[in-house]
Amino acid sequence: MSDSCQSSTCSxxxxxxxxxxxxxxxxxxxxxxxxxxxxxxxxxxxxxKGGVGKSTVSVNLALSLAQKGYQVGLMDVDLHGPxxxxxxxxxxxxxxxxxxxGGLLPPMRYDDTLKxxxxxxxxxxxxxxxxxxxxxxxxxxxxxMSDIDWGNLDYLIIDAPPGTGDxxxxxxxTIKDANxxxxxxxxxxxxxxxxxxxxxxxxxxxxxVGVVENMSGFVCPHCSNQxxxxxxxxxxxxxxxxxxxxxxxIPLDPKVVCAGDDGxxxxxxxxxxxxxxxxxxxxxxxxxxxxxxxxxxxxxxxCGCGGTCDPVTCDC
Length: 316
Prior knowledge:
alpha/beta; Rossmann fold; nine-stranded mixed beta sheet; 10 helices; 9 strands; about 15% strand; globular; disordered N terminus
């Protein structure tokens, strides 16, 4: 780098050139536009409440869609508590992967059917805490979109942390055509928090595919009677209140917990249980809702203007 570029008085920095931060952001914006332009449907799985099963829904939704023959990616933007690698028993580390100079970073693979990225992939010790403020988190999520070789995908599932903070906000602001699947449990305290997530989507003009009511009753493995531990019907009531679709109710099943701990997802398996049957309905409803939605305009992935013009009429 030349001395003139290193100088804080470089006259071109204010114009976003000469290696400035503005130039880097502009270049990254173009890379993000190119990457997202190859992905048909982007689904943010979110909730205002922690512990409702967002990661479980994300992992099994991604796997179920992949098993149907779709090209699917799974992005873990829960940066402080990434669980996706452990739920899929992925132990690969980025520093062990050969990367071509100047090339995109390869994502992890699960059974050759699913592309996965998580911050744990890039950590030397996965038990180290991530002590980051907003700007670092925003940059990490943008790099997940710009620097990873996602290729052509039918679906990108994005697992978000609870709340409406930096992570879901960055996704909403960066992926303009993102859709949301909101996860809740039936009790009133969870529903109160989830309402905030739906209102977040409204403010961000993000399409809400629907609501998943997780932990909706417990089916006894001995007598087959159902017990509504956390009440029931709250998700349905909230969906009607906001005029959105209830994608399904998934009952509690101890096998789901064991499968997640063992890195062998259960809801997307071909076994039989009330939980698996209920989740299959969720997946079918997600497919139907997105297929009935008007397809987005093509993005200007290779446009010299960086995607700032009309992607249909642009001739630059």
